[in-house]
Specification:
The structure holds two protein chains of two kinds.
Chain A lengths: L1 E7 L5 H6 L7 H7 L2 E5 L9 H11 L5 E7 L2 E2 L10 E2 L4 E2 H8 L3 E7 H6 L12 E2 L3 E2 L2 E2 L16 E3 L6 H12 L15 H4 L10 H5 L66 E2 L2 E2 L8 H13 L3 H7 L16
Parallel strand pairs in A: 1-2, 1-3, 3-7, 7-11
Antiparallel strand pairs in A: 4-8, 5-6, 9-10, 12-13
Chain B lengths: L1 E5 L10 E7 L2 E8 L6 H4 L8 H4 L8 H16 L5 H27 L14 H8 L5 H13 L1 H7 L8 E2 L2 E2 L5 H23 L3 H5 L4 H9 L7 H12 L11 E3 L2 E4 L2 E4 L2 E4 L2 E3 L6 E4 L5 E2 L13 E2 L12 E4 L8 H7 L3 H10 L3 H25 L16 E9 L2 E10 L2 E8 L1 H5 L11 H6 L12 H9 L4 H5 L1
Antiparallel strand pairs in B: 1-2, 2-3, 4-5, 6-9, 7-8, 9-10, 11-14, 12-13, 15-16, 16-17
Helix pairs in contact in B: 3-4, 4-6, 4-7, 4-14, 6-8, 8-14, 12-13
The chains are: A alpha/beta, B alpha+beta.
Chain lengths: 331, 483
């Protein structure tokens, strides 16, 4: 059995809720068939109070082998380095201290969600709680445990970032690690599993035809591409959200709103409104990944000039005005 | 007298610690501590108003949409913007999808597993209940998870994803529903209804919603074997364990009402104080900091001028949670409050006979599930793909707005102020802030603190099972509580 302990630090619990959305197969079937044993999970386990503390203590005294420590939520170091903003109920000890101790005992360490990976939403604004990720503070390596930290099996934290995570990002990464297949090269520069982070949200976006012709939406609910006006970062965001569906059907862009690049460190403070594209001289500041600026400008103006009427009109409409023309063999 | 500290308290959303003074085999007094402070009210200060739609759902992963709707309503109030009918219907569907999912998740994953605990091993019903509700292993929870995921396909279609959608806008929904999607929604809701009728209720939903009294409920339960459905099983356990005598609340209730269509809320708002139902006067809501690790107010403040300044200097304090009060009263929120104030005859009779208890809270949740699912089918049918889903408005540079909504767990309010185009204050009172508040200036305990007094504790119990039933009967959401 591959023993997993799941603790919720300073977050919203949304990554756990998303995990429960796993389907075909469902979460419990996935874990059971992969030989993954949940030592304890706050939403799923029977044990409460002293029964939980006993599990934690048995891990610390090496009576239970801990294969994976999954931390959901950022770590609050405040006030003044005490961790007092988040005490683990019934223990008189901060979650910060528990994580520091347990992370020394685990063969692998998982940061579940962008809060645990980088600080995330909990670290937004003035960050009076001194929230941080496990091994990153924003883009900066370090965080709670320091860049030098290695789990018992000799690896850095595995950052399954996202706000929330897709259930399959978690289950697939856990299974791969449980199979003993984990290696350093499986993670990207921000510690994210490349299985999902080597893709862009743009890939498979249902608005791609509008993107090709720079036929842009201007307000929520419109059908066009959301990059030019509405803050969409799908062409830069590392995740496979449009290649595999959320809740069986959707994605942010399918839901009619911008990708806010929630798998990236510091997404919580974009420096401008999330849903407005910052521009210089009418050109969006953030260009598609790997695209030279001059080419982007040239192609954008060319494609704008070539935009079919169908796309131009549909782009700023809620409902489809013009369906695609039907090609017949004979006119 | 002895004192026990129960925590970490799981199968609640977030972190919870309860301190119990025990005397002569029962709880003499309780203190409820919400041990996590993240400071969303501070995170929101200085942000652009529309960006609150990104931050506020992330207060909570289980009430995410409720937070979005409260925020969108507050922004609509600020912008003086109305919503097209499709926008209302879409918002109702997405909100009801979350709320109904939460009622279901609570019953199977959070509440029922406590009856499969070893302490009940000698009970005649134990082996059946253990095989169905044992945490992680029970057949009922294993069957529930796929039904839950299938039901949440509604989110995939209408909100992109759950939790943390950005589709809920001040002017409606950013996701216009296409004709084929409308049909798919009907299939998704219809199939979930079938699951509920087959497994949870063992009967048509109407057979549940039309129950007029406690006697009729009893007659209905007696029509089939107690193990024939999950609702009947709960009623059987409740009868054997006398859950109708456990966890008595304050008997004062509040509901903001929910699911408006053309100005009429499907679930009415109101207060129930001293046995009388009246309209909500939100100017009578205050938050008290007397026992919270907070400073910045000698007197309780209305949330429109509330202050969030964490401080460990208050030596009386034992929680990060502020203490909200309505007309200085300690009020309970949740499905029981909603269905009582909305006048459901069975729930009215239940409260008249037993007040707010573990049993009445659970029955009210399940009755609400049976009531709202057919309404969701009605709303989905009423969507018109040819009409608009979202109105656009303009943000004022200065102003204020209020958003009030019912999350699964009860009344959720957002109070927002904008100055020079930026958020200058944002105050949130969440359902569990009401239910799990600490004491106030008059040292009057919160709802749970009062509900725990008198709870039996068996010798040697470290986390008394009766305490667990009571705490979980509220379906607390601790991440919302302090935010």
């Amino acid at each position: 059995m591959f023993n997993v302990l799941w603790l919720q630090s300073a977050g919203c619990g949304g990554c756990s809720m998303s995990l429960l959305n796993a389907e075909s197969p469902d979460l419990l079937s996935i874990l059971e068939s992969a030989g993954i044993n949940l030592l304890w999970h706050p939403s799923l386990s029977e044990e409460t109070g002293s029964e939980v503390v006993s599990i934690l203590e048995q891990i610390l005294s090496d009576q239970i082998q801990l294969d994976a420590l999954c931390i959901e939520g950022s770590i609050l170091r405040g006030p003044n380095g005490t961790g007092r903003f988040h005490m683990l109920g019934g223990t008189g000890c901060s979650v910060m201290e528990w994580v520091q101790k347990l992370s020394q005992k685990s063969r692998y360490l998982f940061a579940i969600g962008s809060c645990a990976a980088y600080g995330g939403i909990s670290a937004a604004g003035e960050n009076i709680t001194d929230a941080t990720g496990l091994q990153f503070e924003g883009e900066l390596a370090g965080g709670l445990l320091g860049d030098h930290y290695r789990s018992v099996a000799g690896f850095k934290a595995i950052n399954i970032s996202g706000c929330p995570v897709h259930p399959n990002w978690v289950t697939e990464t856990l299974i791969s690690v449980a199979l003993g297949e984990h290696e350093e090269a499986a993670l990207d520069a921000f510690g994210r599993p490349r299985m999902y982070a080597d893709q862009l949200v743009h890939h498979g976006c249902n608005r791609n035809e509008y993107y090709e012709y720079k036929a842009s939406a201007e307000s929520p609910g419109e059908r066009g591409c959301m990059m030019e006006n509405m803050g969409c970062l799908g062409t830069q965001a590392h995740a496979d959200c449009n290649s595999r569906p959320w809740n069986g059907e959707g994605s942010c862009t399918k839901g009619g709103y911008a990708c806010i690049n929630c798998t990236a460190p510091e997404f919580e403070e974009p420096g401008h409104s999330f849903t407005e594209t910052p521009k210089i001289a009418g050109i969006p500041v953030g260009l598609p990944t790997d695209m030279p600026k001059a080419w982007f400008v040239a192609l954008a103006s060319l494609s704008k000039a070539a935009t079919p009427d169908r796309l131009r009109k549909n782009a700023t409409s809620e409902k489809l005005i013009y369906p695609p023309t039907i090609h017949k063999r004979k006119n | 007298m002895s004192r026990i500290l129960v925590g970490p308290f799981n199968r609640v959303e977030g972190d919870l610690e309860i301190s119990l003074d025990i005397e002569e085999g029962q709880v003499n007094s309780a203190r409820v501590n919400s041990p996590l402070f993240r400071g969303f009210e501070r995170i929101l200060q200085g942000q652009q108003p529309m960006d609150a739609l990104v931050y506020t759902p992330r207060i909570c992963g289980i009430c995410s949409v409720s937070q979005s709707v409260a925020c969108a309503n507050a922004l609509a109030d600020l912008m003086d913007l109305d919503v097209p009918e499709n926008g209302e219907l879409a918002t109702n569907l997405v909100l009801a999808n979350e709320n109904m999912t939460d009622l279901l998740t609570h019953f199977y994953l959070f509440f029922m597993p406590d009856f499969a605990r070893e302490i009940y091993a000698g009970q005649p019903w134990f082996s059946e209940v253990e095989s169905r509700y044992k945490a992680q292993k029970g057949s009922a929870s294993q069957r529930m998870l796929p039904a839950r995921s299938d039901f949440l396909h509604l989110m995939g279609i209408m909100a992109g994803k759950w939790p943390h959608t950005l589709s809920l806008q001040p002017g409606g929904s950013s996701k216009p529903v296409e004709p084929q999607e409308r049909i798919r929604l009907l299939a998704v809701i219809g199939s979930f209804r079938r699951y509920l009728e087959q497994h949870l209720f063992g009967d048509d939903l109407e057979a549940i919603t039309e129950l007029q009294s406690v006697d009729e409920l009893q007659d209905w339960a007696d029509k089939a074997d107690w193990a024939s459905s999950d609702f009947r099983t709960f009623l059987h356990l409740s009868d054997k364990l006398q859950l109708s005598e456990l966890g008595q609340g304050t008997g004062q209730f509040l509901s903001y009402g929910n699911y408006p269509v053309k100005g009429q809320r499907f679930i009415r708002s109101g207060t129930y104080l001293d046995g009388k139902i009246n309209p909500v006067d939100s100017s009578q809501i205050t938050e008290d900091l007397a026992y919270a690790w907070m400073q910045g107010g000698d007197q309780p403040l209305h949330p429109s001028s509330g202050i969030t300044e964490p401080s460990l200097d208050n030596s009386e304090a034992y929680s990060w949670c502020k203490a909200p009060r309505l007309q200085q009263q300690v009020v309970e929120v949740g499905a029981l409050s909603r269905q009582l104030i909305n006048g459901h005859p069975l729930i009215t009779d239940l409260v008249r006979q037993q007040g707010a208890t573990v049993e009445s809270r659970i029955i009210a949740r399940l009755v609400e599930l049976a009531l709202v699912i057919p309404q969701m089918q009605h709303w989905a049918k009423a969507l018109n793909p040819n009409e608009p889903f979202c109105h656009q408005g303009k943000l004022p540079k200065e102003g204020s707005g209020v958003g009030m909504v019912e999350a699964a767990r009860g009344s959720l309010g957002h109070w927002l102020r904008v100055e020079k185009g930026r958020i200058s204050n944002y105050q949130i009172i969440a359902p569990t802030t009401w239910n799990f508040s600490p004491r106030d200036q008059q040292s009057v305990p919160g709802v749970l603190e009062q509900a725990l007094v008198g709870t039996p504790v068996q010798p040697g119990e470290k986390e008394p099972v009766a305490v667990q039933h009571i705490v979980r009967s509220f379906d607390p959401c601790m991440v919302c509580t302090v935010h």
